[in-house]
């Protein structure tokens, strides 16, 4: 498992032009050999404490400091090239790790960064040969960088960058670096569409017809496998666990089925015994009791008045 904090970008320019390994250079607004950058990502702990190590190494030299919070970089611009060269030549450490400053290059229209995101097919030295053979004739290589382990001479095949000044603004760069076993994609500002999968130009990987065809075939095979598995399994018998076993009707013949009667037939309530008289609470029972005479309180024992009397009028029913 790679631990990216153990790797740093180093200059490989000396492998092209021979000589000693020089300091890495990167693009920067108003960049120059006197403007030095320190990337915060290389520090595991407190960044201000790590930067104090750099400031103490500058000594009495006059410099300008600028913290770029968007890029997570501190830029130090020294007044003369000698002080900058002196700082770059020192070995600085913080928390038992080496601090890696880099010099900057001014952004110009004819200078661009060529990105090589993946070259795992070939070795690092073979990659340098391809860059020298196929890019050097098109311009001047200002620098080339790759990710190297801080403690051993180990490179990882990702994130290589070439700082190139083109011969002219109109000079066109290739989309691939060709080698014996295939092609390697390169990307830069204004490059045309090129697919990193099929190694053809005219489209990006997201629109690659070859990759889409493979993806659709895989999806079709997966769907077929799921369908065959679905039909091979017997569907289990569904039983409503909320329905009592006694109510499960095998025959839905209306003559023999009691399910409807059980679900929809209104139960008949038993008559109630009130003062020795059975009274039903259903509407039919109430209608059947039309002969029941209700009397008001205090009328028990009185004689029935004559038919012509006013008292013979209908006595309202008692609420009891």
UniProtKB/TrEMBL annotation:
Coiled coil segments of this chain: none
Highest taxon of source: Eukaryota
Domain named CCHC-type: residues: 194-210
InterPro entries assigned: Znf_CCHC, Znf_CCHC_sf
GO molecular function: nucleic acid binding; zinc ion binding
Alphabetized SUPFAM superfamilies for the sequence: Retrovirus zinc finger-like domains
Name of this protein: CCHC-type domain-containing protein
Organism: Smittium culicis
């Amino acid at each position: 498992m790679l631990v990216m904090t153990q790797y740093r970008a180093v200059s490989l320019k000396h492998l092209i032009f021979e000589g000693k390994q020089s300091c890495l250079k990167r693009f920067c607004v108003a960049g120059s050999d006197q403007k030095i950058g320190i990337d915060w990502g290389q520090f595991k702990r407190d960044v201000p404490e790590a930067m104090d190590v750099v400031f103490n190494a500058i000594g009495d030299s006059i410099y300008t400091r600028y913290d770029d919070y968007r890029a997570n970089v501190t830029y130090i611009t020294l007044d003369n090239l000698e002080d900058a060269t002196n700082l770059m030549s020192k070995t600085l450490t913080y928390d038992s790790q080496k601090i890696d400053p880099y010099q900057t290059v001014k952004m110009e229209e004819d200078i661009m960064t060529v990105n090589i995101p993946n070259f795992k097919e070939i070795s690092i030295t073979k990659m340098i040969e391809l860059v020298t053979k196929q890019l050097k004739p098109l311009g001047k290589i200002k620098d080339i960088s790759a990710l190297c382990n801080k403690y051993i001479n180990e490179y990882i095949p990702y994130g290589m960058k070439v700082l190139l000044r083109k011969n002219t603004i109109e000079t066109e760069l290739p989309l691939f670096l060709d080698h014996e076993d295939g092609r390697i994609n390169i990307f830069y500002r204004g490059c045309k569409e090129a697919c990193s999968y099929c190694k053809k130009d005219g489209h990006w990987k997201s629109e690659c017809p070859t990759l889409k065809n493979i993806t659709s075939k895989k999806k079709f095979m997966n769907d077929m496998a799921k369908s065959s598995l679905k039909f091979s399994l017997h569907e289990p018998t569904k039983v409503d666990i909320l329905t009592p076993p006694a109510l499960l009707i095998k025959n839905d013949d209306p003559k023999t089925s009691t399910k409807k009667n059980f679900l929809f037939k209104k139960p008949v309530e038993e008559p109630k015994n009130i003062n020795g008289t059975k009274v039903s609470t259903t509407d039919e029972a109430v209608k059947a009791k039309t002969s029941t005479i209700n009397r008001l309180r205090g009328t028990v024992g009185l004689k029935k008045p004559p038919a012509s009397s006013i008292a013979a009028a209908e006595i309202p029913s008692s609420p009891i």
